[in-house]
Amino acid sequence: MAAMFRPDVVVIGASAGGVAALQIVLGALPATLPVPVLVVLHLPRDRSSRIAEVLAPYCTLALREAEDKQPLQAGTVTFAPPDYHLLVEDTQAIALSMDEPVLFSRPAIDPLFESAAAAFGTGVLAILLTGASSDGSDGVAAVRAAGGQAWLQCPEEAEASMMPASALQHAGADAVLPLELMCRRLKELFA
């Protein structure tokens, strides 16, 4: 089944331990990636994020921080800025939101995953990585309910197992993978 699935968008969520996990996952994406990638990493609200700069050496794709109403761009990794939820507005653009924090986080993973599921339906690949909250569980449920796929980092391998374990218990998954195997699967998916 995985071989026939071709996503139109990849959405990734991570929290505690996420920078190291993102180095590995983003590093596996080919320079010719034909879809946009949107990332929420739980960030402190009160200071600027340098996550795109930090991860740039590991990734062949363009990395940028999201701006409101920015067009979705294939081959580009877009990060939620501090203190804003990152949303998929429609299949063409993203939006930033100052809505209430979700599970004490803004940006939060659930709004990204849920809005991607609403916009892209069966075309979403959601990847939930390490983290110490249950953010992402409702989003994974929404993606799977819309016919998209959700891949979770193997909780035993994650630096903080709670987030992938919570999503697995709450919503199930299309794959539960150690990062090395997840990277191999991503390369095959876009080969």
TrEMBL record:
Transmembrane helix in keyword set: yes
CDD domains registered for this protein in UniProt: CheB
GO biological process, one term: chemotaxis
Catalytic residue list: 15, 42, 135
A Gene Ontology term for the protein's cellular component: cytoplasm
GO terms, molecular function: phosphorelay response regulator activity; protein-glutamate methylesterase activity
Domain CheB-type methylesterase, chain residue ranges per copy: 3-191
EC number annotated for this UniProt entry: 3.1.1.61
PROSITE patterns hit by this protein: CHEB (PS50122)
Entry keyword annotation includes Transmembrane helix: yes
EC primary class: hydrolase
Residue intervals passing through the bilayer: 20-41
Catalytic activity: [protein]-L-glutamate 5-O-methyl ester + H2O = L-glutamyl-[protein] + methanol + H(+)
Keywords for the protein's UniProt record, in alphabetical order: Chemotaxis, Hydrolase, Membrane, Transmembrane, Transmembrane helix
PANTHER family: PROTEIN-GLUTAMATE METHYLESTERASE/PROTEIN-GLUTAMINE GLUTAMINASE, PROTEIN-GLUTAMATE METHYLESTERASE_PROTEIN-GLUTAMINE GLUTAMINASE
Protein name stated in the entry: protein-glutamate methylesterase
The species this protein was found in: Stenotrophomonas indicatrix
